[in-house]
Amino acid sequence: VIERLCVIGVGLIGGSIARGARARGLVRTVVGVDLDGGNLDKALRLGVIDLASREVAEGTAGADLVMIATPVGAIEGVLRELQPVWSERAIYTDAGSTKINVIAAAERVFGAVPPNFVPGHPIAGAERSGVEASTADLYAGKRVILTPLALTDTEATARVEALWRELGAKVSRMEPRHHDEVLAATSHLPHVLAFVLTEMLGRKDEQREIFQYAAGGFRDFTRIASSDPGMWRDICLANGREIVPLIEQYREALKQAAELIAEGRAEELHALFSQARGARQRFLDQLEK
Amino acid sequence: VIERLCVIGVGLIGGSIARGARARGLVRTVVGVDLDGGNLDKALRLGVIDLASREVAEGTAGADLVMIATPVGAIEGVLRELQPVWSERAIYTDAGSTKINVIAAAERVFGAVPPNFVPGHPIAGAERSGVEASTADLYAGKRVILTPLALTDTEATARVEALWRELGAKVSRMEPRHHDEVLAATSHLPHVLAFVLTEMLGRKDEQREIFQYAAGGFRDFTRIASSDPGMWRDICLANGREIVPLIEQYREALKQAAELIAEGRAEELHALFSQARGARQRFLDQLEK
């Protein structure tokens, strides 16, 4: 049991960790830290947290486990506030969607990443956001990736892993660079593609209505374009080094597809679409496992 | 009441028209025509059709309404078979996903588009296909676009429109060119984007597993990449003149987004994503109407 869990950033991600830990009796006291007083009030009213603070130093005092669940762009600032009050007996972890930049931020703040800081990432987005949307079961069956470094304390990693498992997640460990590569492909790139398409068609729709003729396929395809713009700006900036080359690669693949269409190369087009369908089936088969 | 409805191409689209018309008592006899004998057997066994034929001439004999519900790439061949047995007292229509090329095919076959042929398109895809997937309510609440020409018989258009309305669809009329433009943006382009992304990531997944870390957002985004490859090859070839420039426009928009990311232009990136989210909300608001 965690005596005192401090969640920094009480939104969908942090709120769901707090709710899940409480619902399973994993924690005695939850302290919420947030810059946004309205968020804290809501979290208190909803019973997601027991105590609230707008100060990192105050909120983390005496905590056994500190979960940084702010958007990725805010993590360096949080680490800077944590630095003077960093406790050797607490375990720190984060839920940031990118890992290399969080590790780089910790290096800038601490010189070297502290052994009791375990970088992590729960793969459980939702297009909704905010503590109102948080649920105790957000992580049930979801994947969580931890990216401990060579010097990370193994006991600290094990305790963070245990928390996620008790919340129902499937936990993997990965090199930080590999994490950022994989997530760029399966999450960051698709989000950019959806945002860019929806913005482009939105401009067309303003000139002459087209959205009224869009159907269920379009709704599903663009669902991720309803995600939080600030969060995705931060992710793109944090992981640009992986995302930008993937966009380039995708633009090249699109160019080739456009050529197949323009030149009427029916068989190659059929092969391309068939391979895509086959690949998606492999993905679905894995999802069911 | 339609005495004799002939559905050419007994798959998801044609099967659902037959089922829907029968369920609502709109038709006395349904004749199914398909090159694929297995399809016909299934359709007979499922009670979707009353009579089956593999010959267009035989199957359409005595029909009041002939619905061409084959993939778009097969429509010209069907029209060629219809030409020698074309009846002045029947009404002909189609359910092809593109319209300019169907009209051009009819011009090639008949010299001019016959006045009793009403080009149409129900916007009701599904990633499933085949007569087994057909349902009586596929068109309930869906949009159907008719693209009659100046010389199209207004009575014929009205009868086709009435059939779709009785199947529960919202029917609009549109210029054929505008139909192809709108559908290229809201349907054809997204399908190409999903196919190309899924194929590209499928190749990465073969080298080093990435799909196991993909989540619900990816599942929704790639759903349309499970669509029938042959059908989408045909659509892309039929409407390449609209699709190819849109791909080019999208590649340019992606290039600009990549620049914003690479150059760390946070505010512009945030504005782009916010505009996308706003545009999607407009789309959702319209969908509910």
Walkthrough of the structure:
The structure is a homodimer of 289-residue chains. With 289 residues, chain A is an alpha/beta fold. The first copy, chain A, is built from eleven helices and nine strands. The first copy, chain A, has helices at 12-23, 37-45, 56-60, 75-82, 100-110, 154-166, 176-207, 216-221, 229-238, 240-262, 266-288; strands at residues 2-8, 27-33, 51-53, 65-68, 91-94, 117-118, 120-123, 143-146, 170-173. In chain A, strands 3-2-1-4-5-6 form a six-stranded parallel beta sheet. In chain A, α4 (75-82) runs parallel beside α5. In chain A, 55% of the residues are buried. Chains A and B meet through α7, α8, α9, α10 and α11 of A and α7, α8, α9, α10 and α11 of B.
Short recap of the structure:
Chain A has 289 residues and is of the alpha/beta class.
Report the major sheet of chain A. 6 strands, parallel
Which structural class do you get from the secondary structure elements of chain A? alpha/beta
What is the CA-based Rg of chain A, rounded?
A: 21 Å
Oligomer: homodimer
Q: Treating each run of at least 4 consecutive H or I residues as one helix, how many helices of chain A?
A: 11
Largest interface: A-B, 88 and 89 residues
**Uncertain residue ranges of chain A:** none
Side-by-side strand order of the widest sheet of chain A? 3-2-1-4-5-6
Shape of chain A: globular
How many DSSP E strands of chain A? 9
Mean pLDDT of chain A: 95
State the helicity of chain A in percent bands.
Answer: 40-55%
N-C termini distance of chain A: 30 Å
Query: Approximately how much beta-strand content do the residues of chain A carry?
Result: 5-15%
SSE order of chain A: EHEHEHEHEHEEEHEHHHHH
